[in-house]
Amino acid sequence: MKYVLVTGGVVSGLGKGVTASSIGVILKACGLRVTSIKIDPYLNTDAGTMSPFEHGEVFVLDDGGEVDLDLGNYERFLDIKLTRDNNITNGKIYQAVIDKERRGDYLGKTVQVVPHVTDAIQDWIERVAQVPVDGKSGPADVCVIELGGTIGDIESMPFIEALGQFSYRVGAGNFCLVHVSLVPVLNVVGEQKTKPTQHSVRGLRGLGLTPDILACRSTSALEDNVKQKLAQFCHVPSESIVTLYDVPNIWHIPLLLRDQKAHEAILRVLNLHGYYSVAKEPDLREWTARAELCDALHEPVRIAMVGKYTGLSDAYLSVLKALLHASVALQKKLVVDWVPATDLEDETAQENSDAYKAAWKLLKCADGILVPGGFGDRGVQGKILAAKFARENRIPYLGICLGMQIAVIEFARSVLNMQDANSTEFDTHTKNPCVIFMPEGSKTHMGGTMRLGSRRTYFHVNDCKSAKLYGNKSYVDERHRHRYEVNPDMVARFEDAGLSFTGKDETGQRMEIIELPNHPYYVGVQFHPEFKSRPGKPSPVFTGLIAAACGQLEGVLQQNHRVSNGFGAKISVYQNGHATKFAKMTTTNGNGIYSNGMQF
């Protein structure tokens, strides 16, 4: 097993996760099998109880693991399925060590950070690296490890020490350290400054780790004299120094690494370079075509994202990526308009009329409306108003998890005339509980007690949009994260009024998918389809939303019907509703996703 460790210096938010994912992509394109591990130095056992404002979205895995959003990047870039053990935290390590101490495994010993905690970290890495994540048998060839945080953080010290020991444990030729650092350009001077990276590398070396490759973040490519200076002071060959400069979209990062021969530098350090190596030149033709296609798109499709955490795009990262995957497949330029749910409410109209008017203007100008998952009652009324607007004005709507529950509550209030209809999450005394707490849930412990992970949904209506989008399968497996569900005792009343529950769990008692049959596209799903969306394989329900928003849904449904009946192959790019092959695009008059007019 070979290991590539990615660390970061100077400041946080440099893009270590994307860098680690891109390294995995380029190694996979060389013919190697790749797995990934993310190390988070916080004391939480997992990310499940963290606020999205604090740490971005919680990404959910097939096995129910609630993990850091970077594991979502790994899965999307590498098209793999990770497990909860691929996310290591201080909390997990210390819990494992304390459990061993309580069992008596260290009987007679004084349990210390070194060697007991550091050994536990190394053993965890070695064990998890052997687990296949690409659907094939046997371990991967290379494990890419990302160490969260910044070099020098006090909470990272046990991991730094453990990784230093680990490099000796696995031996030379099996361990490569890639250090991501910042080379800023001061506006006053106008030159690239190397001192921050020099100090970062000096700190790293002082902790017992020596970088083999420097990945320097900057606004533009490093100048030759800057590379030479970094090589001299950081003791890294100039050919092992690469620039990660600003690009139109992150799909260009693996291409940057390839163009600067980063794969050759990594393969040299890992003794995978040469005549007898299994590695080959990276084949990134499809990846290149997709990145260039994304740049070339210019016809916009506007999606209003009505949520609670709209001030931080990372809170809905997987949703944004799923929208991007679908829009690129349909050759549309994605524009996301962030609509704070509270700004749609009558209370805001009285307190801040400008924000109220701006929010409603965005909603009314949207081609489609999406209400993502969330917790708590803040903004719920605004989300209900958004769902009502979409239903009454025949605007394509997709509700995810809470967004589906919101659609059910709105339907009960507006169509069934149940004015006090609500979820018991927001009103425990409502007389019409449309959404209720699941009986197997815990009201005393918050962490890891929801309905989590991959669950099977069976289609109960064949002639519906969601079933057609999924290729007319009898069931689908999607990932879940929720404590509340649609009240099964009220389903018959909803169905009599025209709301169709097209997907249910294996018992038939838990509602998974809702649709309005006579609406252009009004779909709600209890699961989180964004977690399984991939650049070349967009989520079907997201594809449906984008297709309906740009008037191509009928063509997409017809294509999926032909594919499900064995005519032709399923292809990821649609033009005017019809599937086409990836075409290499040369014009670059578009810049990926735009959010309220700003690229992110």
From TrEMBL:
A Gene Ontology biological process term: 'de novo' CTP biosynthetic process
Residue intervals of the Glutamine amidotransferase domain: 313-547
Matching InterPro entries: Class_I_gatase-like, CTP_synthase, CTP_synthase_N, GATASE, GATase1_CTP_Synthase, P-loop_NTPase
MF GO annotations: ATP binding; CTP synthase activity; identical protein binding
EC primary class: ligase
Pathway: Pyrimidine metabolism; CTP biosynthesis via de novo pathway; CTP from UDP: step 2/2
E.C. designation(s): 6.3.4.2
UniProt cross-references to PROSITE patterns, sorted A to Z: GATASE_TYPE_1 (PS51273)
CTP synthase N-terminal domain sequence ranges: 2-272
Keyword terms of this UniProt record: ATP-binding, Glutamine amidotransferase, Ligase, Nucleotide-binding, Pyrimidine biosynthesis
Reaction it catalyzes: UTP + L-glutamine + ATP + H2O = CTP + L-glutamate + ADP + phosphate + 2 H(+)
Matching HAMAP family: PyrG
Family: Belongs to the CTP synthase family.
Role summary: Catalyzes the ATP-dependent amination of UTP to CTP with either L-glutamine or ammonia as the source of nitrogen.
Protein name per the record: CTP synthase
Natural source organism: Linum tenue
